[in-house]
Amino acid sequence: MGTWDTGPFDNDTAADFANALDEAEPEAREALIRGVLIRTIDATGYLTEAEEAVAAAALIAAQCPGGEPVDMSYGPESPMPVFPSDLRVLADDALARIVGDEDGPDSNWVDPEDRKQWRATLARLRALLAPPPPSIALFDVQP
Hints:
Structural class: mainly alpha
Strand content: under 5%
Shape: globular
Helix content: 40-55%
Distance between the termini: 66 Å
Order of helices and strands: HHHHH
């Protein structure tokens, strides 16, 4: 894995995914993102698309309240469509699968500080992707 930093697009595979999104027709971008998330969730054994799934999750999280724009240096240059809310759940599930994989990308970090930063990035993304708690209507109690 050619990795130069701990951000979602700071590796060769995620940068290639960004290029694929740029080359895709605008209406096909959601399907590319959905596909990589579903394949990561359903994967058995080695997570071959973990880096792409993290990048996809970052794109979805960028559209959530409090989300940060994706680094345009390595992320897609083309604007992304507005993603449907169900992608938030898929992105969070994919990140949970990646974080829980002992032999996955987490094991590739040599420097413990880099591993810590990368895990913090995933935690931030998951916090953004988490659906807001359901609001419970309070009853108007009259004395």
